[in-house]
Amino acid sequence: MANPMKMAVDSLFNRLGTPAMFKNRSVRIILNEPDEVIGVGFINAHSETHRTRIRISDAPELKIGDKIETAEETYAVHSEPVRDIHKLVWSCDLICV
Fold first, then answer.
1. What count of Cα atoms within 13 Å lies in the side-chain half-sphere of residue 37?
2. 3-class DSSP state for residue 7?
3. Phi-psi category of 38—alpha, beta or left, where left has phi over 0 and alpha has psi -120 to 50?
4. Strands 82-83 and 18-22, bridge-based pairing
5. pLDDT in tens, 44-66
6. DSSP H or E segment with residue 39
7. How far apart are CA 89 and CA 97, in angstroms?
């Protein structure tokens, strides 16, 4: 029997995901929080980090330093990937390289 949560995640990524390449494999990622403005004292600093989600089935060995390429940008994984409670999706921070 098919896992309904996996089917929902696959549907979400297929509809909303951005096509990308990870280690010469075609994957789909969901980018959110494209930029962050951090207040430091009286100064606002602009951070070019991106938060992304990628299916674990697409990138089971994802780690810091790995590259993910979209049509517009090349990103490097900047934070330790964290699995969701269902162990279907990685969440991590990316930086443009």
1. 3
2. helix
3. beta
4. unpaired
5. 766 667 889 999 999 999 999 99
6. strand 36-40
7. 23
Long-range contacts of 57-61 (CB under 8 A, 24+ apart): 57/88, 58/22, 58/25, 58/27, 58/28, 59/22, 59/23, 59/25, 59/27, 59/90
> Which single residue is written with the structure tokens 């949560």?
5
In whole angstroms, what is the distance from residue 73 CA to residue 24 CA? 15
Q: How far is CA 2 from CA 59, 62, 91, in A?
A: 21, 25, 24
Distance, CA of 69 to CA of 72 (rounded, Å)? 8
Task: Give the pLDDT confidence of 11-56 residue by residue, as tens digits.
Answer: 999 999 999 999 999 999 999 865 666 677 777 766 667 889 999 9
Q: Can you give the length of the chain in residues? A: 97
Number of C-beta neighbours around residue 25 at 10 A: 9
Verdict on whether the full-model pTM lies above 0.70: yes
Q: 3-state class of 84 per DSSP?
A: coil
